[in-house]
Amino acid sequence: MRTRVRDGWRLAVGTLTILRVPPPSRVDRGTAGVAAVLAAPAFVPVSMLAALVGWGLSLVLPGVVSALLVVGLVAWLTRAIHLDGLADTADGLGSGRPAVRALEIMRRGDIGPMGVVTLIVVLGLQVASVAVLLGRPWGWLAVALGLCAGRGALVIAARRGVTAARKDGLGAVFASSVPAPVAGVVWLVLAGLLVLVSWLMGAPWWQGLLAALVGAAFAAYLVRRSGQRLGGITGDVLGAAIELAATGVLVVLAAA
Known about the structure:
By secondary structure, this protein is mostly helical.
């Protein structure tokens, strides 16, 4: 059990960040399930660093400039791998092609118009939301928690019953690796933390709860849509779910 938790932690950190950790001794469905559950806490160092840098920059720079640098820093600290997955997933799902052809489109290294537009919209929403939050008391903490909550999308994408679109890749390893009750507990904890940060910012407590519901709903819808169109999830879908969930949480937290 201890080995599995250690390997899951290493898989989560190594997959979600550029931080160097020893590779897991074994990568299987059990390890992936642990990694999905630990995804949010594993991202804390990156999210806290980015949020605190943003808070410091907001003292001397316009909010939008600070927010753009925060979003750029997060992309760099994650190798922009989740954004790449978002663009590929948008191209595949937006192609209107059969599943086999859509998966081929997602495998290509280039980005099509659907991917470009999706990146612009999602990154724009993230920058605008972070800019608003950095101007509020405890807003930097809301930014950090929102980014971590986005990584909680992995337990939704990896919950039992979710199939993989391919027999190889991260999608095949993560699919159906997290029991549904465990996924529910993870999001209950995230919801509680979001309620707390809403209270610290002086916002209604239910705003944090709504942020959690929207983030989880975005991820769940993408997973369902991917199952219908692609036959299941892929590594790209995992990355897309993370970005969509984080965006949903940040947008709702930033709402007046």
